[in-house]
From TrEMBL:
Source organism per UniProt: Streptomyces phyllanthi
GO terms of molecular function: oxidoreductase activity
All residue ranges annotated as the Ketoreductase domain in the record: 15-160
Name of the protein in question: SDR family NAD(P)-dependent oxidoreductase
Superkingdom field: Bacteria
Length: 310
């Protein structure tokens, strides 16, 4: 992996990718670089205005790119179902599903379906999307599902008895739990794929400390301008760019020999640098915890993955 960068992405012609949250940050860079290497890319974003603006920007940066915007709100399971139904009706292959979109350290709130926002968007929305797209993923030889987690998963394991933080809400703990859920989901998906003998790789990645709007979204909602300024200063002087932050995702999605349930992040202390194998908390490799989270996610979302029974 040493020195791996976007120029090392293999030819993606004939391949199709769905990238959630592709309107900005590492999601946009991921979509752009996949398109640059010839992939047909679907920018799956909540905001139509930001999604279409990103599509126009991508077209200007990569002339001739095969890309389109399709609305997807991961905080609304009806939107997830509509997106998946349209996709599977209109297309017969999906090579790359990049579960990138996310929210971070928001004030306490709920999704449309009543889930705590960070858990609902970061995990349940992507769980449902992946489950609903499984038929086309499993029908595409060599398909991959890459879920973007965070080094912040290490701040907390999930609490299977309080997944929606109803007993007590601490924004950073809730964020860490949602990112642990991303890794447990990847672990369990990889286990089930192996048991089924399916041709699908489930992997995870994280961007390290990358300068994106993710860090300031919650602060803007609360009008915490002083803290927002401090974060922006940190982003300017200490964070790596969104282009660099997207490299672990791009590696996990395209590099040859990526192993199931691998976790790729920046090489230098997990903060910045070329893609490398990343450390992860032991609780994200617990088979029983992964199975319990999967079963509870099926119950909460109503999306039952019949193709990959335990």
């Amino acid at each position: 992996m040493a020195g791996w960068n976007a120029t090392d992405i293999p030819d993606q012609k004939g391949r199709t990718a769905v990238v959630t949250g592709a309107n900005s940050g590492i999601g946009y860079v991921t979509a752009r670089e996949l398109a640059r290497r010839g992939a047909r890319v679907v920018l799956a974003c909540r905001s139509e205005a930001r999604g279409t603006e990103a599509l126009d920007r991508l077209g200007a940066e990569v002339p001739g790119a095969e890309a389109e915007f399709v609305r997807l709100d991961l905080g609304d399971l009806a939107s997830v179902r509509e997106f998946a139904a349209t996709y599977t009706r209109e297309r017969d292959r999906l090579d790359l599903l990049i579960n990138n979109a996310g929210v971070m350290a928001l004030p306490y709130g709920h999704t449309v379906d009543g889930f705590e926002t960070q858990f609902g968007v970061n995990h349940l929305g992507h769980f449902a999307l992946t489950g609903l797209l499984l038929p086309v993923l499993l029908g595409t030889p060599g398909a991959r599902v890459v879920t973007v987690s965070s080094g912040m998963h290490a701040v907390s394991n999930i609490d299977i008895t309080d997944l929606n933080s109803e007993r007590r809400y601490r924004r950073w703990i809730a964020y860490g739990r949602s990112k642990t859920a991303n890794l447990l989901f990847t672990h369990e998906l990889a286990r089930r794929v192996t048991a089924a003998g399916a041709d699908l790789v489930a992997a995870a990645a994280h961007p390290g400390y990358a300068a994106t709007n993710l860090q300031t979204a919650g602060l803007k909602l609360e009008g915490r301008t002083a803290v927002e300024r401090v974060v922006l200063i940190g982003n300017r002087y200490f964070a790596q760019s969104a282009d660099a932050g997207a490299l672990p995702t791009l590696y996990a999605a395209t590099a040859p020999g990526v192993r199931p349930d691998s976790f790729t992040g920046p090489a230098l202390l997990g903060w910045r640098g070329s893609p490398a194998r990343s450390r992860r908390a032991g609780w994200t490799l617990n088979d029983r915890a992964g199975e319990m989270l999967w079963e509870e996610s099926e119950r909460l979302t109503g999306v039952v993955c019949d193709q990959l029974k335990a």
